[in-house]
Write a structure and sequence with these properties.
The chain is mostly beta strands. It contains one helix and eleven strands; from the N terminus they run E-E-E-E-E-E-H-E-E-E-E-E.
Length: 182
């Protein structure tokens, strides 16, 4: 089988993160601008090569002051590190999938392993072939240099070190160019 090229369909995908605030509740944020691709030699995506990036300036937590703080040097430092990125591969073991690779934030790269729920492949009404994935995992923000922290007078941590990553991704298969071998 030849290599199939896929790209993220941004209108049917979302990239979010969740972090505990004051240890009692969760704040959800989104990256509104992102892109990614996959190259796969099989319909089940085992061994697929994956590339992804998100623009830090597109962070949206539904609160502009918090968004600006996250973009500042206290956290992502968007002025000096405008994107986060990931490069890795899909690994299938039986019916279980993992996305394994290198995540780069704020100029620091660390190996990560994320759980993947592969939803399958389907054709849409416009003749396009789509593939769906739910991706989830945790990272420690301090491992990537996002070290700002504060403690309330009562001793509660303002922002947890653990961040949950949640991606709902739909890929669209790219058409093979005329004259190219399939």
């Amino acid at each position: 089988m030849s290599t199939a090229k896929w790209t993220i369909d941004p209108t049917h995908s979302e990239v979010s993160f969740k972090v505990k605030h004051l240890v009692i509740s969760t704040v959800t944020g989104y990256f509104k601008k992102f892109e990614g691709s996959a190259e796969s030699n099989s319909d089940d995506f085992d061994g697929a090569k994956v590339n992804f990036s998100a623009e830090i300036d597109s962070i949206d937590t539904n609160q502009s002051d918090r968004d600006n703080h996250l973009k500042s040097a206290d956290f992502f430092d968007a002025a000096n590190h405008p994107k986060l990125s990931f490069e890795g591969t899909v690994q299938k073991n039986g019916g279980d999938y993992k996305l394994v690779g290198d995540l780069t934030m704020r100029g620091t790269t660390k190996a990560v392993e994320l759980d993947v729920d592969f939803g399958g492949v389907a054709g849409d009404p416009y003749g396009q072939t789509k593939a769906g994935f739910e991706i989830e995992g945790k990272v420690n923000r301090k491992d990537f240099g996002l070290t700002w922290s504060a403690v309330t007078e009562a001793g509660n941590v303002v922002v947890s070190d653990q961040v949950r990553l949640l991606l709902s991704v739909q890929l669209v298969k790219q058409a093979v160019a005329e004259g190219a071998s399939a």
